[in-house]
Amino acid sequence: MILTARVVLLPASILIVLGLFGLVMIDQQLRGSMASRVEHELHRLAESSLVTLEDANRPLSIVNVDPVSKRLGEAGQVRITFVDASGVVAGDSNVEAGAVGSMSNHKDRSEFVDAKTVGWGHAFRYSETLRKDFFYVAVYRPIEIQGENIYYYARASVSSDVLKHQITQMRMALLSILLAGVILISAIAFLIVRRAAMTTLMRQAALEKEVSDKTAEIERMHELDSLLNACSDLNEASKVVGKIIPTLLSNSSGAISVYKSSRNQLKMLLFWGRVWGDSLYYNSDQCWALRKGHEHLSRLDSSQVECEHFTQAKDRATLCIPLIAHGETIGVMHVLKTQFEDQELVIAKAIAKRLAMSIANIELKSSLRQMAFKDPLTHLYNRRYLYETLEQWFSVSHKNRTEIGIVMIDLDHFKQLNDNYGHDAGDKVLKEISQFLLEATRASDIVCRYGGEEFCIAIPDTTAAELTQTVQKLCEELAEVSIEIGRTQRLKVTGSMGASIFTSHCNSIENTITEADEALYNAKEAGRNCVRFSKLLEDKLNASD
């Protein structure tokens, strides 16, 4: 209470003493100081108006410039005018949009003449357009628009009525303070103290909320980075995208499209928010973001052209951001939202950068896996992939008590074929036989090049009877395959096959492969182009009979 009383009474006493003396002097100083202050403020507003126009970075037409002048004029409660170097008015906050183009040329106005000479100028005169006395301050300097430096004027002005009104208000305020006396001053001081305390608390709360929101945003970004980096394929990445992005871009939905291998079409692969209603495929020339090389935003309330691949986004604004990794565009991030705030655009770009690098890394890892697990000649899986997959099937087979068929295939007389027709012919035979095996087996089966002219087929969820029928049919169909060598010759290649079966009672899948290999050896001993079975498989067949 003592501190509050001092805070209230001390300013009141000082103000009364100074007010009596100052009232005499204030009238003399008021006009000059007010004019100087207004001139300084108008100069600052004119400079900041040019900065705002430069930041907009759009062509300097009336359509683009006039809305900027009106927004700035409304915000600063002054008249803002933009004029090009030739004196043509491109925007005026106090003139109707349709009338701006018909305004007279301003290059000979005194403030513009001075501004062109020394960078800025001022004037006080009667406005024929608005029929009032105005105080003008004009600034002239180059601004950078789309990579080009263009000289431009910005003028800030205020009506003389405003100046007179401000002077009158100040006189009345001083007189009221003196007449009200200590009681009024004390009350005002008390309210100021109280208001300051409340404002401090409100600012502190707002700052804490801002820090909290920013911290949460950073944490979600880190989580997005961490989870995406841990993803081994795009299916896993889709789950991460569907969970994290809606927390960063609230009330949004969207998709991530990635270039197909042909590079002329993109496919939507990752989604979040609403069910995607547009096509899953589109050509690269249908997206303005890909054409421009940077983001493309189409708002609901603007005339911005919308990308052709959007056909179901009539009630929402659309945003497309190219995904660029290591200097190469790999896809596009598509976002749909009723309205985009400036901060949301910043967040969307940050997300796009992270997605681009993550998708590129996932595709790189996938490519490396393919190189590690695929035979470069036939593009079949190799022995390493076979054993790793069978290890996984091994535990599933024990758990579900299912059986796995193993078929070993060796092409007959392949060395002789190489000697007679050359290695190119041998490579072609291996490729076409590989394609035949892929087409003759189920999608769930694994066809591997085991080594040289030897192949292995792993058949999950089968039975002894089904396995023997499959292998017999495969051997017969292989013998019918005709392969063109050169332009005049066709070859038929046969294969010897050995089959075994892995059951839940077996100890290891390697033993089953060894048994199938031994059965293959028996088939070759029996004259080739035939099938032989392991002892376990024959026992199961006999038991079922």
Automatic annotation (TrEMBL):
<feature type="domain" description="GGDEF">
    <location>
        <begin position="402"/>
        <end position="536"/>
    </location>
</feature>
<dbReference type="InterPro" id="IPR050469">
    <property type="entry name" value="Diguanylate_Cyclase"/>
</dbReference>
<protein>
    <recommendedName>
        <fullName>diguanylate cyclase</fullName>
        <ecNumber>2.7.7.65</ecNumber>
    </recommendedName>
</protein>
<keyword id="KW-0548">Nucleotidyltransferase</keyword>
<dbReference type="GO" id="GO:0052621">
    <property type="term" value="F:diguanylate cyclase activity"/>
</dbReference>
<dbReference type="InterPro" id="IPR043128">
    <property type="entry name" value="Rev_trsase/Diguanyl_cyclase"/>
</dbReference>
<keyword id="KW-0812">Transmembrane</keyword>
<dbReference type="GO" id="GO:1902201">
    <property type="term" value="P:negative regulation of bacterial-type flagellum-dependent cell motility"/>
</dbReference>
<dbReference type="GO" id="GO:0005886">
    <property type="term" value="C:plasma membrane"/>
</dbReference>
<dbReference type="Pfam" id="PF00990">
    <property type="entry name" value="GGDEF"/>
</dbReference>
<keyword id="KW-0472">Membrane</keyword>
<dbReference type="InterPro" id="IPR029016">
    <property type="entry name" value="GAF-like_dom_sf"/>
</dbReference>
<keyword id="KW-1133">Transmembrane helix</keyword>
<dbReference type="Pfam" id="PF01590">
    <property type="entry name" value="GAF"/>
</dbReference>
<dbReference type="InterPro" id="IPR000160">
    <property type="entry name" value="GGDEF_dom"/>
</dbReference>
<feature type="transmembrane region" description="Helical">
    <location>
        <begin position="173"/>
        <end position="193"/>
    </location>
</feature>
<dbReference type="InterPro" id="IPR029787">
    <property type="entry name" value="Nucleotide_cyclase"/>
</dbReference>
<keyword id="KW-0808">Transferase</keyword>
<dbReference type="GO" id="GO:0043709">
    <property type="term" value="P:cell adhesion involved in single-species biofilm formation"/>
</dbReference>
<feature type="transmembrane region" description="Helical">
    <location>
        <begin position="6"/>
        <end position="26"/>
    </location>
</feature>
<dbReference type="InterPro" id="IPR003018">
    <property type="entry name" value="GAF"/>
</dbReference>
